[in-house]
Amino acid sequence: LSIISLIQNETPIMPWNELDAFWMPFTSNREFKSAPRMLTSAQGMHFTSDDGRKILDGTAGLWCVNAGHGREEIAKAAYDQLKELDFASAFQMGHPRPFQLAERLIQHTPEGLDHVFFTNSGSESVETALKIAVAYHRLNGNGSKTKFIGREKGYHGTNLGGISVGGLGSNRKDFNCLIPGVDHLQHTWIKGSEFTKGQPAKGAELADELESLIALHSADNIAAVIVEPVVGAGGVFIPPQGYLERLREITRQHDILLIFDEVITGFGRIGKPFAANRFQVTPDLLTTAKGLTNGAIPMGAVFAHNKIHQAFMNGPESSIELFHGYTYSGHPVASAVALATLDIYQHEGLFEQALALEHCWQEGLHSLSDLKAVKDIRNIGLIGAVELHPGDQPGQRGKQVFLDCYWQQNTLVRGIGDTLALSPPLIINEQQIHQLVEALRTAISKIPT
Ligand code: PMP
């Protein structure tokens, strides 16, 4: 006991000279370790930093803590489940939680998306969906349908399939081993749509480019089109009115599956359970993760349309229908946490609350349009982006604002190049929206123009 108390008294929470072993993901490790930014606890809308500051979370962690931090109900569900059944494989064996969870989840999806395959992350959900698409066509006697169409600026995780269909050069450039047979649509942002509130009115016709790609590759060779309904990590881009509808029309005409990657748009982020509900466009496969467990435990899911599931179930009785899965697919603790998360969303009406706050959020963000450094502002639901005019070095201004917000304004925002991406927990209130906007205003105002 005395040794422990000695260590606790004499050693800082994290000795700064011992940060080398953890190779941090998606982080400039050398820069970070010269001035570490360390979050040590979190409650509600706030993190606490190691130097004791309360930091307003403008990012819901990483688009995932939709119900806010430190939820007792979630902690209890994890603890209770760990005591009752810590692990049981879902390979050839069953345990109740993932069955209960799948039943609950399909109450929220658009009609037809009635089957759930569990994964551990967004990246795994994407790989799973791509594989299901190819296997589905093969089962239907269309074995040549193996190509994918992604889209510029798309982010679909970091596994090989995901970076191949993804449209971000930075994620691909160091890895010259992408999956073959992938092409990309152009992104959906068009000049003239700056400062649009919600969905841009123009741009639906950009979806027609898919017809040209089909003419080039032939529908006989294309398995699926994958897009994020609202682009997140690529810089936050809202689909033009009619665009997703048009993609749906064309894919349906050519027996090409449509995959919506809803890893960030799932679970109320844009005021409905999924973007598919909000835009009233039903994909064939829908990938998600993050808000599924409020970020508390890794878990992802792929929703499959009945027609896809049925194709697999029509095979010989004793065979494994889909030769795919993960040790932790449908993990009991993750499933219990997801069930507790869904309870919170439902009892607190958080999806509806996000929708109700959308106007305040939109007006708050767009009030920054008077700042000279601001090039564009985009928003839908409780997602937002403030794009800055680039300086001499692209990304530098975004980073400056991110750092200023963190150190000076006690606010966490995300810098994606020169775009500040915002996605607060859905429990945010109007006063906190105002606070977030003011923090951005102060930080952006420091940019020399
Ligand atoms: N797809 C989208 C749209 C995402 O935003 C992300 C993560 N930001 C992923 C996939 C990958 O999810 P994960 O990091 O959980 O693998």
Automatic annotation (TrEMBL):
The Gene Ontology terms for molecular function here are: transaminase activity
Q: Gene3D superfamilies this protein is in? A: Aspartate Aminotransferase, domain 1, Type I PLP-dependent aspartate aminotransferase-like (Major domain)
Entry superkingdom: Bacteria
InterPro entries documented for this protein: Aminotrans_3, Aminotrans_3_PPA_site, PyrdxlP-dep_Trfase, PyrdxlP-dep_Trfase_major, PyrdxlP-dep_Trfase_small
Necessary cofactors: pyridoxal 5'-phosphate
> Per UniProt, which keywords does this protein have?
Aminotransferase, Pyridoxal phosphate, Transferase
CDD domains hit by this protein: OAT_like
SUPFAM superfamilies (alphabetical)? PLP-dependent transferases
Query: What protein does this entry describe?
Result: Aspartate aminotransferase family protein
